[in-house]
Amino acid sequence: MLEQRGMTGKQLAARIGISETQMSLFRSGKVRGVRFTTLSAMCAALECRPGDLLDYDFAEADLPKGDGA
Question: Which residues have C-beta within 8 Å of that of residue 19, sequence separation ≥ 6?
Answer without folding.
Answer: 13
